[in-house]
């Protein structure tokens, strides 16, 4: 009897526990620049290539300190560090001055750290010093987050970026030693019962709610079919392996890793892969852009084989309309970079609902409901 009661209680506890989720709505806004928040400098080509492109930014709300100071942040699966602009940034750093700034002397939960840091991204760099405070989001309070207070803000087109800072949701090590990254801290403090999160991004025409991150859960109404899980390709990075990549029926790549990155707008790929792709794309090079006509039926579907299952990008997913000399032309969302892996950014994540499971060290993918029609 005691045993049955115990099991019953355990069962109740479990069903209660599995409901412990933190839902963070993501807002979307058109921005003149796409993001590329992956660690490291991708080379100058990317900066030039991406100017003028139509693009969507996804950001969520957090608050830091007590009383709370509000910020808009990118939740970035491609990096691990968290930073916010600092109230102490110099007056002549316009990028910093045009965003909300964290003022540690206005927070009773702040504690100093003082170490300096620099972070380099595909989109530029930020520099400053470290601080510690309590971060609040989706009704949860998470004390003890060590984050960067940014003094020097040198991201591309940073004055036009809507978000203030960035929350790194990577599994990896921080740029700074002996501190615990956001996701690990969240799990260590048992703020969610399962150490995982899922990402849903919408393709939106209007500004407004554009998706959701659920820490500790999955929303089954957002995808069709089953989640297809694959192990992560390396310890501590949200990368999986693409065993084969096809454009139409042509093989363009094989056995390549791909980073699943909410902080990057497009699909980045190694130069050789990009060349293989262009070889079968009907279009023409103009400077560093590759111009296609916008007739979708003439263009190939991209097929990525991941864990034995095909995942697709159709022309409607990867074509981007831009105006050039008063004419509408199309370019692709594929960008060649100096990397030996792919980066599957928002273009891919809008098509596929994605689960980032830190406990299982695996990534789950399923077709987003928006594509099922
Ligand atoms: C911060 O955000 C919360 C929730 O969105 C809001 O209620 C509050 O008024 C905001 N505070 C400030 C100072 O803007
Ligand atoms: C930070 O807050 C303190 C206390 O309110 C204030 O005196 C100080 O001027 C603020 N610093 C900046 C740079 O705004
Ligand atoms: C941090 O950087 C500031 C200048 O930005 C410098 O004055 C200070 O000495 C540096 N501190 C450490 C510990 O390196
Ligand atoms: C961590 O700190 C040690 C000693 O200060 C230093 O030698 C090492 O390079 C640091 N590692 C990283 C990743 O910053």
Task: Give a quick rundown of the structure.
The protein is mainly beta and 373 residues long.
How would you describe this protein?
The chain has about 375 residues and is mostly beta strands. Helix content is about 15%, strand content about 45%. It has helices at about 1-15, 45-50, 95, 180-190, 270-280, 315-320, 345-350, and strands at about 20-30, 55-65, 70-75, 85, 110-120, 125-135, 140-155, 165-170, 195-200, 210-215, 230, 240-245, 250-260, 265-270, 285, 290, 300-305, 310-315, 320-325, 325-330, 335, 340-345, 350-355, 360-365. The strands form 4 sheets. Strands 1, 2, 3, 4, 5, 6, 7, 8, 9, 10, 11, 23 and 24 form a 13-stranded mixed beta sheet that branches. Strand 15 (about 285) and strand 16 (about 290) form a beta hairpin. The model is unreliable at about 10-20 and about 45-55 (pLDDT under 50). Bound molecules: 2-acetamido-2-deoxy-beta-D-glucopyranose (4 copies). The site of one 2-acetamido-2-deoxy-beta-D-glucopyranose has 3 residues, from strand 2.
């Amino acid at each position: 009897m005691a045993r049955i009661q115990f099991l019953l209680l355990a069962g109740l506890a479990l069903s209660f526990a599995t409901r412990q989720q933190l839902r963070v709505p993501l807002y979307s806004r058109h921005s003149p620049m796409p993001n590329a928040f992956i660690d490291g400098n991708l080379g100058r080509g990317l900066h030039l290539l991406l100017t003028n492109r139509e693009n969507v930014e996804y950001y969520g709300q957090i608050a830091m300190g007590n009383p709370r100071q509000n910020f808009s942040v990118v939740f970035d699966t491609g990096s691990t560090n968290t930073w916010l602009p600092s109230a102490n940034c110099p007056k002549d750093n316009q990028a910093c001055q045009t965003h909300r700034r964290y003022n540690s002397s206005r927070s009773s939960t702040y504690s100093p750290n003082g170490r300096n840091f620099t972070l380099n991204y595909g989109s530029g760099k930020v520099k400053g010093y470290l601080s510690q405070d309590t971060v609040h989001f989706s009704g949860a309070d998470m004390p003890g987050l060590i984050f960067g207070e940014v003094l020097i803000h040198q991201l591309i087109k940073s004055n036009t970026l809507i978000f203030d800072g960035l929350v790194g949701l990577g599994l990896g090590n921080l740029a700074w030693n002996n501190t615990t990254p956001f996701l690990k801290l969240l799990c260590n403090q048992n703020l969610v019962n399962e150490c995982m999160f899922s990402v849903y991004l919408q393709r939106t025409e209007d500004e407004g709610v554009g998706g959701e991150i659920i820490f500790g859960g999955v929303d089954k109404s957002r995808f069709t079919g089953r989640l297809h899980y694959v192990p992560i390709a390396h310890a501590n990075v949200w990368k999986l392996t693409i065993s084969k990549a096809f454009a139409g029926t042509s093989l363009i790549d094989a056995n390549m890793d791909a980073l699943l990155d909410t902080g990057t707008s497009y699909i980045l790929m190694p130069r050789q892969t990009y060349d293989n792709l262009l070889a079968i794309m009907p279009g023409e090079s103009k400077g560093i852009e590759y111009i296609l006509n916008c007739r979708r039926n003439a263009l190939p579907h991209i097929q990525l084989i991941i864990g034995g299952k095909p995942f697709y990008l159709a022309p409607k997913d990867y074509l981007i309309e831009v105006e050039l000399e008063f004419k509408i032309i199309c370019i692709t969302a594929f960008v060649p970079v100096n990397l030996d892996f792919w980066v599957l950014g928002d273009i891919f994540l809008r098509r596929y609902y994605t689960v980032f499971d830190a406990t299982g060290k695996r990534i789950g993918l399923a077709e987003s409901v928006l594509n099922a029609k």
